[in-house]
Specification:
By secondary structure, the protein is α/β, with parallel strands linked by helices. 42% of the residues lie in helices and 15% in strands. The strands form four sheets. Strands 3-2-1-4-5-6-11 form a seven-stranded parallel sheet, with helices on both faces. The chain has a two-stranded parallel ribbon with strand order 7-10. β5, α6 and β6 form a beta-alpha-beta unit. α5 runs parallel beside α6 and α7 packs across α9. The longest helix has 22 residues. The chain starts with a strand and ends with a helix.
Length: 332
């Protein structure tokens, strides 16, 4: 049997699929290849995956928010597990383009839940986000913390996904694991993320926009650590035993944080990028943006205790790896 990876042309999806192929799995991918950022980058990721194992990889183009298109694309394709990573990303983009989030993140998640239900998949692992914690002031963020005060539509859709998943775990006993990712970065990353923007502008001699005048912290998590957490989760579905699990559920559904457990000041990140680039940054200091938060910090005790997850990549190594990749990719 195969593993379905939604959002396979995305940053995390590509890396998860590559690791699955590397360990001998058959991967069925689906992506809508939208133009939220350069389609050429998404196509390059798929080309990289084909070099990893083209004989065990098939990729379908379809929008998960379109039920009919999803059914047509997957038809009689066989798979027994799903890693659901497709979504409309970006906190700030959701302010001006709310409909995109309703289609991809709400309708799309429901369509994947229905697929999991009717295909009797053995485990559905899906992407949530640290954004669900909203303006939470308690540090570090724990999966037990309240998540009913989102400050962006993106965050609201991700929390809604978690609640829909709990409904399907309760009604149909679909085994699921929700993963709240904390600021993922690394090679093949997204151009709308700070690390890409900062690196590109520093190398081109352009100023970088620094929000909240640099007074921000993020729990930057390297992509290899994220993939490790995804695969550990995928390989160990929650039991339908009535016992309480991470996130407070007694159904076969749990929620974990995946972070580095080490929040880094934004100005330290910039200094690390400067060192990797060998150039200083010109700073354009700006106020906080709507929908953003000043700090994130993941409590990863639950996933550590249950699955042995321990992040191992420090920011100096991770940033250097990204800058080296970016220079090769962009021809700098």
């Amino acid at each position: 049997m195969a593993i379905l990876v939604t959002g396979i042309a995305g940053f995390i999806g590509m890396h998860v699929a590559a690791r699955l192929l590397a360990r001998g799995e058959t991967v069925v991918g689906i992506d809508n290849f939208n133009d939220y950022y350069a389609v050429a980058l998404k196509s390059a990721r798929i080309a990289e995956l084909e070099r990893c194992g083209a004989d065990r990889l098939t990729v379908h183009t379809a929008d998960i928010g379109d039920e009919a298109a999803l059914a047509s694309a997957l038809g009689t394709v066989n798979f027994d597990r799903i890693v659901h990573l497709a979504a409309q990303a970006g906190v700030r983009y959701s302010i001006d383009n709310p409909a995109a989030y309703v289609r991809s993140n709400l309708a799309g998640h429901l369509n994947i839940l229905e697929l999991a239900r009717h295909r009797s998949v053995t485990h559905l692992v899906y992407a949530s986000s640290s954004s669900v914690y909203g303006a939470n002031k308690s540090m570090p963020f724990r999966v037990e913390d309240r998540t009913d005060h989102p400050i962006s539509l993106y965050a609201a859709t991700k929390r809604a996904d978690e609640l829909m998943s709990e409904t399907y775990a309760h009604l149909f006993r679909v085994p699921q694991t929700g993963l709240r990712f904390f600021t993922v970065y690394g090679p093949w990353g997204r151009p709308d993320m700070a690390l890409w923007k900062f690196t590109a502008n520093i190398l081109e001699g352009k100023p970088i926009d620094v929000y909240n005048h640099g007074d921000m912290q993020r729990d930057f998590t390297y992509i290899d650590d994220i993939v490790d957490g995804v695969l550990r989760s995928l390989d160990h579905p929650p039991a339908d035993d009535g016992k309480e699990k991470a996130g407070g559920f007694t159904t076969p559904h749990r929620i974990y944080n995946i972070g580095n457990n080490q929040p880094e000041p934004l100005m330290d990140l910039i200094a690390t990028i400067e060192a990797a680039c060998g150039r200083k940054a010109a700073l354009n200091l700006l106020p906080m943006q709507d929908g953003d938060i000043s700090a994130t910090y993941a409590d990863i005790d639950a996933i550590g205790a249950d699955l042995g997850f321990v992040p191992s990549t420090g920011i100096e190594t991770g940033v250097r790896n990204f800058v080296d990749w970016y220079r090769a990719y962009s021809g700098d």
